[in-house]
Fold each of these.
Amino acid sequence: MKQTERLIEDDGVSTLVEYLMISAVLMTLLIVTMLMLNTVMLQGPTDRLNYYAFTDISNGISTRIVDVYMIAPPDGNLVTKIDIPDDVAGRSYDVNIATRFTNLEDSTDEIIVSRDSVDYHTSLAGIGSTLGVEGNTTGGGFNLIRYNSEGV
């Protein structure tokens, strides 16, 4: 066997090994990119969109509750329907009104709009906890705000 024939055989094997190594590195990078794509490109912007939508929803609910408080009769009942978005980014969400205690004597009501890992807390503007507002709902359908001067 001549020296030139052996050189050609070695060159073919090294080209194949080089091709396999480069392909393995590129496949590894592709797999890592595919695994990170959902978190970086989709989940982050979706959470940001949810946060801003939840901010608008909680501020709207807070405003409507304060409006009911301002026109509420001293004796009697008041019921109003409000419409909030059915879903945000194609998924439902929860709205809760809860009392938050800042210390032993002071408390304030806050509206919590949440889904999965994203939640937004906003205080019930202007009335604090003077009425003892409570309740929860979801985005679907019409929602009611009820005022009863007897506290029932």
Amino acid sequence: MLEVIGSNLLYFGIGLIAIAAFLIGTSGLMLLVPGGALKVICMVGLGILCFIGFQWLAPEFTTGGTRESVEATTKNVFDSVTDVGKSVEFDLFGDSRRNKWLKEQKKKNESGYYKDKNGLKYYNAVQDKFYYQLPNGKWQDFETWNTPIDDPFEKSSWRSITSKDEITGYWKGSNNINFPEVVNLTPAFSAMFTMTLRRNNDLFDIEFMLDLENFLDSVIAKYPDYFESKDIFWSKFTENSKKQTGNINYGKYYLITSVEKTSLENILNVCKLEINNNDTKINVVMIKDIFGIEGADTLECILDKQ
């Protein structure tokens, strides 16, 4: 709220400056004596404020009508000056902001939307083209002015990762996975699966995490007489899990397993990896059960390059 008020006051100030510049620039006398012109503008502005203030304090003695009508008139004046300020600010800096955004998108080689007072734009990184949306919903190419089209959007395409050189830097992603009910064992539940992947010279550091708080809540809700609390259930669950799997660590309601300096071949034995056409996202599909939970072999998520 304060940010919006501050922004409107800024535009109001820009609007006053623009109006003053217009008055100075359209009057030969004011061009000759800018100092005096500004004084006149300030005096007129102060006089208007005093007049409006008097109307609001004593509307019955003026043509203001009621305080509500004075407030409405004042708001209209404020909004009008603010609109002038927004237009001036956009004319001076709007293209600069758009061009800066477009430069960053090209640098990242990433498609995306941009919206300003002139409407919606879209940059297609694969085509290296910038489009703006017409009132009829079609999209026009900024540079070539070809016939407007219905669909300028990048189409995702994935290829399987087969070489370590296709993965550089640090990647991270999450996905909310839904597990089906196992009759007479566990109810249906959802769990947040998170994966990180980091290039470590010619090898990789990989980590999987599964948040099971919803699993605990679901089991306790279905079997309220079996567990006194979530913490007691979690303690028993981890105790039993440790007997079955030795490479998993346990946090507050989550399981985590990690491997440092492993080869791409070892990762592909556990995951299916695909990378998108501009090398910014990796699609991961678990092809082996790593958490000992039924249905966990279908875990998947998309990693974004950080």
